[in-house]
Amino acid sequence: MSVDSPSLDPSLRLSSRMAGLRSSAIRDLLTFTARPEVISLAGGLPAVELVPRERIARAAQRALGDPRSVQYGETSGWAPLRETVASRESDAVGRRLDSSEVVITHGSQQALSLLAQVLLDPGDTVVVEEPGYTGALQAFGAAQAALVPVALDADGMDTAVLEEALTEGLRPKVVHTVSNFHNPRGVVLSAQRREHLASLADRYGFWIIEDDPYGELWFDAPAPAPVAAHSDRVLRLSSGSKTLAPALRVGWLHGDRRVCEAVELIKQGTDLCGSSLTQRIATELLDDGAWLDTHLATVRGAYAARSGALIRALESAFGERLSHTEVFGGMFCWIEFTDGCDTTRLLERAIEHDVAFVPGGAFGVAKGHPHAARLCFATYDSAALVEGVDRLRRAYDAHLRTPWSATGH
To answer: How far apart (Å, rounded) are the C-alpha atoms in residues 127 and 338?
Structure first.
């Protein structure tokens, strides 16, 4: 479902960085999944009924009482929000951060894109996870980096494999990790590997981008301390999109002050500044600790129940034909068909049955993951998820009945 970038016809005069770029398979599915009859397990969309719209409305009204909320703001973000983020992240990493070490961005994806521009020259090596987060693959691809994948297992990135590659001469500029409730695999980087990864960064001098939009969405217990707790060579990203509301478009990064200053400089040429209004709204919500704790507990409980409903439905519908990762938090479940089912072809049948998912190939770097898929359990309630799996099973049965060669593909 992905498409290549426009061909580099000289008459178009597009830049060389457009060569080889692919549109996100998830973005490409949005037109289909916008239809109300479709159950989309594809996009990483929070449940709209859990977005605190009334609380946001009250905060917006208060923010609009100040005329500065509709004016241009600082490129690095509204100062009180940077102070709030610095305080919250100080608690997470176990050392005091200054607000000058924080930049507010238009979602954490912008932070990733800006860091790619700041840190990378064409041809620089970036270590990514296999399978990898599509937004990171796009950002690093646009920076014309050379991607080197390191496999994931149940404990996250295999840092022993990374160390072996480093001892053999690999010299990355950046290592990217989605440390908590990985997108797409759903796994958590273990505490031991977090310390190991940080020690490798200190020894070999690369930057770690710790991408953590899902860390607050734990079910039974929080994830281990961030990688940033173990090294000052970590640039840590997070966002309010998954916990407050995607439409606020409030994300942030923190790390080395010199990198933050460089990010701010590049950001001036990108959007001048973010939304003063939504940053003020986000500040009020993040500062209201009692309300936020209750809100997050509600979201965690709902997502835990939904993940359980999805997994039970998958096990009932497919039995031993399918395996899945254990889900401890976040929004995603990674599945693999053990009978050789090609999920890219299965998606065509699934669309005919008004259900969607993302084939594993969309996340591949060096591997195709042809029998895997990512399912999001956050968007729908348990009953809809069960119905979605039933549609998926019917699509699977239709796929088995009709040999692919007979469809003309």
So the answer is: 29
50 CB-near residues (< 8 Å, 6+ apart): 298, 299, 302
Name the residue among 374, 337, 339, 378 with its Cα closest to residue 359: 374
Q: What's the Cα-to-Cα distance from 277 to each of 206, 254, 256, 295, rounded to whole Å? A: 36, 22, 27, 21
Residue 106 contacts residue 274 (beta carbons within 8 Å): yes
* Token pair belonging to 81: 């929000």
Is 238 in a helix, a strand, or coil? strand
Partners of 177 in beta bridges: 210
The tokens for 331 are: 């929004």
CA distance 45 to 124: 32
- CATH 3.40.1160.10 assigned to 67-287: no
CB atoms within 10 A of CB 90: 15
For 97-157, the DSSP string reads PPGGGEEEESHHHHHHHHHHHHH--TT-EEEEEES--HHHHHHHHHTTPEEEEEEEETTEE
Q: Mention every residue, 6+ apart, whose C-beta is less than 8 A from residue 296.
A: 216, 243
Query: How far is CA 2 from each of CA 25, 27, 247, rounded to the nearest angstrom?
Result: 4, 8, 25
Query: Per-domain residue ranges for the chain?
Result: 10-51+292-399, 67-287
Q: Are 256 and 235 in contact (CB under 8 A)?
A: yes
Fold of the CATH domain 10-51+292-399: Aspartate Aminotransferase, domain 1 (3.90.1150)
How many distinct helices (H) and strands (E) make up the chain? 13, 14
pLDDT tens for 180-210 read 999 999 999 999 999 999 999 999 999 999 9
Model pLDDT for residues 232-243, shown as the tens digit of each residue: 999 999 999 999
Stated pTM of the model: 0.92
How many CA within 13 A on the CB side of residue 151? Answer: 8
